[in-house]
Structures are given as C-alpha cells and as structure tokens.
Amino acid sequence: MTEHPGWQSAFIEELGALGPEMGIPRAMMRIAAWMMVCDPPEQSAEQIQHGLRLSAGAVSTGTRQLITAGMLERVSRPGDRRIYYRLASGSWQAPLEAKLRALGRLRQIADQGVASAGDRADHRLIEMRDAFAWFETQLDQLLEHRRRPTP
Description:
Layout: H1 7-18, H2 26-37, E1 43-44, H3 45-52, H4 56-68, E2 72-77, E3 80-87, H5 93-117, H6 123-147
Antiparallel strand pairs: 1-3, 2-3
Helix pairs in contact: 1-2, 2-4, 3-4, 5-6
C-alpha cells in the first residue's frame, strides 16, 4: 500500500471534526488522533502543543480528559523531569464501556419512569426505554465479542 502525503494531518483533522458530533471537544479529539499517529508514540505536552498548534491550556485540559477517559497514560523517563503521554493499552475499550454504562443508566431511569407511571406511561417513555435497552444489549454483545481472544 502506498503512503499518501499528509495522511496524518488529514486523519487528525477529520477525527477532530467528528468530536463535536460525538459531544467531545474538537481539541480533545485532535489530541487523541495525534497520539495515534505521532512519532515517537510518547509525547510531552510541549510536543503535542507544537504538533497540533494548540494552546498550553487546551493540551492540559485535553490530556487530563483523555487520562480520565482511560485513553492516555502518563509516563516518565529516567533523568527527565517532563511528563510524557502515550495511548493506553486498550485505549478504545474504556470509553466504549463508559458509554455502555451511561446507556444502561438511561435505560434504568426509563424503566423506573415506566414503572412509576404505571398505566399512564405512554409511547414516548416506553420507546425511550426500549431504544436504550436495545442499544445496551447490542453494545454489550459487541464489547463481549471484542474481549474474546482471536484464534
């Protein structure tokens, strides 16, 4: 396969543009994308800032959020006082599982609403519960499939 010039920048910008559609800040998504294609794979905040032309504040906030989401981890190097970041092993699993838990919580709240409303629960509440129950089931199956070792 032939490498296309500028593929890394295109990847970073396309993923960054998708962020707001997913409820994720654009800068945070660009940092995640950068960490997937940068060389070396461990980057200091300054390297991320320079590579993406982001402010120090945006990098600080973005890396902190990505660490909380389980996508990045901090690493240190002997004799170097700077903190470096790298993608965490299984970095996509943690945010997907967090979304699954959130969908499960939405389904639980809808279940409670349907139960509390009794005969007054109309199609809107029932559709919400059923939709989130379906999403929860489908995502749980996908994640379970992902956890299984490949032969």
